[in-house]
Amino acid sequence: MKLYKINKSEIDKKGQGLYAARDIKKGEKIINYIGKIITKKQTEESDKYDNNKPIYLFTLNKKYDLDGDFNWNTARLINHSCDNNCDYDGKGLKLWVTSIKVIKKGEELTCDYGFGYDDNYKQFQCNCKKKNCCGFIVRSESRWRINKKFSMSNKENLINNSC
Ligand SMILES: [Zn+2]
C-alpha cells in the first residue's frame, strides 16, 4: 500500500499535494524522489536552471545533480511548509522523502524546499499558515539544496528574513 494519496493541496490552492494515506511513523520512507541525473556542467549550461522559477534541482554530489521537474516524479507535488513533517533524504544517487515526525492519516505531506533565493525570494510566497511561517519559501536549513547557485549569495537575506 502506498503511504500517500494525491489530492488538491491546502497549501498551494492552485496545485496538488500529497496526503498521508494512513498514520505514518517518524522515519518512514514515503516516496522516492525520481528525476534525471545530470552533470553540474549541464546544470550550469542550461537555461532551465536560472534563478527566476521554482525548480526541482538537488545536489547529489560534486559531479551530479538530480532534476526532478518531470510529471512522472510524483514526489515533486509535495509542498513546502515552514513546519514541515517530511524531509528529503538520500544516499548515492538516490533520493527519497522520509517522515520526520508522526503524521496522521489525511495530513498533507510537506518538506522544507531549502530555497535560498537572494533578490528573488519574494516571488515565492508561502501559504502554509503555520505559526512560524515567514511568508516566503526560504530555507531554514537543509542538507539537500534545491539550487546550489543560491547557497553562497544569500547569506545576508537569510539573516534579515529568516523564519
Ligand atoms: Zn510557511
Would you give an account of this structure?
The chain is an alpha+beta fold and 163 residues long. It contains 3 helices and 10 strands; from the N terminus they run ββββαββββββαα. Strands 3-9-8 form a 3-stranded antiparallel sheet, with no helix packed on it. Strands 4-6-5 form a 3-stranded antiparallel sheet. It has a two-stranded antiparallel sheet with strand order 1-2. It is globular and about 40 Å long. It binds zinc ion.
Structural key phrases:
Beta-clip-like, three-stranded antiparallel β-sheet, 163 residues, 10 strands, binds zinc ion, alpha+beta, 3 helices
> Main sheet: which strands, in order across?
3-9-8
State which percent range the strand residues make up: 25-35%
Shape: globular
CATH class: Mainly Beta
Please give the structural blueprint.
Blueprint: E1 4-8, E2 16-20, E3 29-32, E4 36-39, H1 40-45, E5 57-59, E6 64-67, E7 79-80, E8 86-91, E9 94-99, E10 110-111, H2 148-151, H3 155-161
Parallel strand pairs: 7-10
Antiparallel strand pairs: 1-2, 3-9, 4-6, 5-6, 8-9
The structure holds zinc ion.
Quick take:
The protein is of the alpha+beta class and 163 residues long.
